[in-house]
Design brief:
The protein is α+β, with helices and mostly antiparallel strands and 90 residues long. The protein has one domain. The chain has 3 helices and 3 strands; from the N terminus they run H-E-E-E-H-H. A hairpin with a 2-residue loop joins strand 1 and strand 2. Helix 1 packs across helix 2. The radius of gyration is 14 Å and the shape is flat. 14% of the residues are buried. The model has no long low-confidence stretch (mean pLDDT 88).
Length: 90
Amino acid sequence: MYELKWMHNIPSQNFEGALKFLNELGWNLKIEQRKGHWLLFAGESAVFKSTAREELEAFVYGLALAYAVMPQSLLRQFREFNESEQSGRV
């Protein structure tokens, strides 16, 4: 079991909010369960694998927290870059 002390920094303060927040920044995360393992994909690449979903959630929370505590101006730049990349303007 884990306790995330800075949960208030993560949008919606829950796991779904953390995933949505990261995907808005271009991570394209999805979760799958295969043969007793939980896998986290960023696009087509597996970036995390565990037998415990709680460990996967802790990883996602940590990644979301790393972005959530960034200055808003920097987050705005990430979002703008992601939007321009998706529209083919990069």
